[in-house]
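Example record used in the benchmark description.
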Amino acid sequence: MNSDRRTFVAGNWKMNGLLDEAKAFMDAFGRNPAEDVVEVGLMPPFTLLHPMSERLAAMGISLGAQNVYYEDKGAFTGSICPMMLRDSGCHYVILGHSERRSIIGENNAQIRSKMTASWLHGLEPILCIGETLEQREQGITNTILTEQLAILKGAPKDVPLTVAYEPVWAIGTGVTASTDQIIETHAFVHSELQRLGHDARVLYGGSVKPENAEEILACDGVEGALVGGASLQADSFMAIVKAAAKVAS
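Model output (structure tokens):
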């Protein structure tokens, strides 16, 4: 784990947000108040990437997408390629989110292809990993995480990468993993990444909100947060950013 890199607070808007709402959010949020210690990123829907790009850059906020396809161009109706994301001002792209895995049916091979394409065109993947409640109760969390991280085998070692550990049972449920669970699992993820030869930043995601952000971000091994619902409102997202700055200072 690299102690010199900034804490990263990223907001995943999922399938939420219209143009007027995005403008109101940016007006209310203003500028990243702690750029020296906290990187802030937003991942809005595809329709908002270009309209928000220049304004977010001026606010000191990185732009990312929620998904990408692995081909450069062609007859892939409804898909977005890495170059289109770069053209819209994106630096990041979320890959392997549990909702993509469980609802859309994405598998590790597809996620690896997307990751390779993202690196090829200068995007930094935010690779989401995490176990279901049933898997947690069966005691196979580490096995599941190992399988999900295995897509990094053979990948270049000098490529930019962020990993987000999101226990599936805590995403959008209001339930948050205990600090002991977070510390233990993040330690395992860091050790597995080290074994695979990657020094990736590791975030926690799963019902992160202003009320618990400081406690979560203070956990050993946690280098930021991937925030869902709480990132849709400027005041709650700002509160999380300020909590990250307090912990990092």
